Amino acid sequence: MNAIGVDAGGSLVKISYEEKGKLHTKTYPVEEIFACINWLQILSPDAILKLTGGKSALIQSLVEQKIKLVDEFQATVTGTRYVLKTEKQSTPDQFIQVHIGTGTSIFYVTPDFYERLLGTGIGGGTFIGLGKLISGKENFNELNELAGQGNSHQSDLLIRDIYAPSPSPLLGSLTASNFGKANLNKDAATADHIASLVRMIGETLVLLATQTAAAHQLKNIVFTGSTLDGNQPLKELIASFQDILDFNPIFLEKGAYVGAIGALLDR
């Protein structure tokens, strides 16, 4: 192979390469950076490493292979356009992209233009960090499993909780305060608090994304990034707002790897 795309982020190193006409992907935690580099050198010692992401300089300092640095935002959008075309039968010409990595970036994307509109520190790092403080666990998959077992309504203060027993002027199931019942409901389990954490992250990102989409008169919002990889509770939470907020959420099977794929495709 001639090239390998590497997206070295704050938490994960995502890898993309093509072999025998098939696109392959792989992930390493940043803590296993030396194992990652050894694997890259075994895979194809003569390949050009096309690097993007915040840890690119670190990898560059540790390898002897030829290096090409690729702009992180450009790689993210290029990879997203490519994956959209390969995974979806019909793709929007324009869309808002919400890339949920350690933090989150929001882009406006057209066929020949993109602009990073805003970002937030709410993202995968929030999930792992607060998840550890709440549960003592820091494994991403274990936290996902806990979130799936929990009920955020046991930890969140809802609109109906405030107005009960009177009728609510708003939809009663909407969140009035994330974790607003955590100190009151002694029966709430750790899983409930992790589910509340997922809801807080999802609600925050959906509100930012839909307001951005409305400003550009768009309804299609593409959600990408490693935080969504295997995170069914977060995907379901995001999708649950599509009717209330009138938007079309799009999730990609290889959405975690769009940065690495975009780097690989860079010419």
From TrEMBL:
<keyword id="KW-0067">ATP-binding</keyword>
<keyword id="KW-0547">Nucleotide-binding</keyword>
<keyword id="KW-0808">Transferase</keyword>
<dbReference type="InterPro" id="IPR043129">
    <property type="entry name" value="ATPase_NBD"/>
</dbReference>
<keyword id="KW-0418">Kinase</keyword>
<keyword id="KW-0963">Cytoplasm</keyword>
<dbReference type="GO" id="GO:0004594">
    <property type="term" value="F:pantothenate kinase activity"/>
</dbReference>
<dbReference type="InterPro" id="IPR004567">
    <property type="entry name" value="Type_II_PanK"/>
</dbReference>
<keyword id="KW-0173">Coenzyme A biosynthesis</keyword>
<dbReference type="GO" id="GO:0005524">
    <property type="term" value="F:ATP binding"/>
</dbReference>
<dbReference type="GO" id="GO:0015937">
    <property type="term" value="P:coenzyme A biosynthetic process"/>
</dbReference>
<dbReference type="Pfam" id="PF03630">
    <property type="entry name" value="Fumble"/>
</dbReference>
<protein>
    <submittedName>
        <fullName>Type II pantothenate kinase</fullName>
    </submittedName>
</protein>
<dbReference type="GO" id="GO:0005829">
    <property type="term" value="C:cytosol"/>
</dbReference>
<dbReference type="InterPro" id="IPR011602">
    <property type="entry name" value="Type_II_PanK_bac"/>
</dbReference>
